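Subject: two folds for Thursday's group meeting

Dear M.,

Sorry for the delay on this. The cluster queue was jammed most of the week, so I only got both jobs back this morning. I'm pasting them in the order they finished. Each block is the input sequence followed by the predicted structure tokens. Could you check whether the formatting survives your parser before we put anything on slides? The first protein is the one we discussed after the seminar.
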Amino acid sequence: MSYPKALILSMRPKQWLKNVFVFAGLAFSKSFLQTEPLLRSIAAFILFCLVSGAVYLINDLADVKQDRLHPRKKTRPIAAGQLGVIPSIISAVFILALSFTFAWFLDSDFFAVLFGYFALVCAYTFILKHVVIIDVLALAAGFVLRTVGGTVVIHVKISPWLLLCTLLLALFLGLNKRRGELISLAGGAVAHRQILGEYSVDLVDHMLSVITSTTLISYSLYTFSAGEPYYMMLTIPFVLYGFFRYQYLVQKKDMGEAPELTLLADKPLLVDIALWLLLSLGIVVLL
């Protein structure tokens, strides 16, 4: 495998789907109708993708031994020996330096959020992912920082409801990921990642029942807070279907270990998300 291909695969472009949370502030503030905020949001999205890609390189270097025990992760370029340690380190440093330089010139406040995100994911890679419950909360905090970064870069006010719903949705996805890992790895879960020994499928299911109901209630309250006329309430059925469909895929199809692949692979879920997005944007424009 060539160096460029191995590098790109190691940066996990499919995972960059998570960075669409950068556009949340743009969408719900009507700023998407203006050229400058749209371009600034796109730039912020690209920078989050580059930084997260560099962090995946660091993560794969730190987890190379454990990844070689995993049925799917052992094929990653670093774990498979297709991308060397020195080239990986040099690439990560170069990408981070370039990204932070552009972020500084784009917006100093956005630079602070992006650097905070980098510090958080590094702390997760080396420390926080070994602490039960905190590991999932740290992952969720990364989604919140993406949302904050997206609002800061276009200078719009952050809705506390938007941040709460982002946090809860991220916890929902993170816990389902843990559940998928426990099932797919079975008896080898602890050998791959020691923290998985602190979880069980029953425990995660109990947590998910709390998070799911809390998220749906919070989103419903968010639609009420949009004010009269309460058109945003029309989006609630799409959110309900999306959550139930995702849980169906996780528990019946064992697709919870890779949320980004689940979202991209299931057509009914993609259609539901597209309809929710179109309806939400249409309501924002009309209100």
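Second protein, same layout:
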Amino acid sequence: MEPEAEIKNSIKNWAVGDRPREKLAAKGVNALSDAELIAILLGSGTREGSALDVARRMMQKIDNDLLALGKLSVKDLMKEKGIGQARAIIIVAAIELGRRRRRFETEQKKNITSSKDVAEIFMSRIGDLPHEQFWLLLLNRANKVIGQELISSGGIAGTVVDTRIIFKKAIESLASSIILCHNHPSGNLKPSEADLSLTNRLKEAGKLLEIPVLDHIIVTDSSSFSFADEGLI
């Protein structure tokens, strides 16, 4: 590309009101599109286009879906021309900060009163993961959260769960009851036969140890399924 064309592509040569950083400073963060926010993270473009061009091209490839963006790894992002490792890491870090902020907000409500309360906690934690994770929520007698434990992390189709580990965690924490939660990367909320069998096994073990299993929640990035609400526990 000729130097003249390269200069033309630079955001620095745009009208001040159109530059993402200046636009944010003047009008606030809500005035910017998703691509403009990403362009700020990228910092600069390539010989073929500005940072905003790179950001728009990347977002178009995922149908402008921010949930899909949240599932991309550093390696995935680096497949886009104009995004090297350093820029990919910045994007992943920014997304993780947003995820943690959302989780922090939901976890401030420590008292569990419904399946929705649990779903809010774990949708922000594991809802958009590309692989399955199984978590344990530990509660006291007042149904207040006293701990969250990652039990296992597996692949796209499932993860191994050890009953002994779950109740060891519960006993060590002096939990009065527990709630189970795992995600379905496929987006399908329907519990599998393995999910049903595991839940029943853990429910029976909980009865013997006097640590009842109150619910088992399946989450995706935008919805949830409660065994208790559906009469399956």
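Two things I noticed about the second structure. Residues 85-107 form the longest helix (23 residues). The chain has ten helices and five strands.

Cheers,
T.
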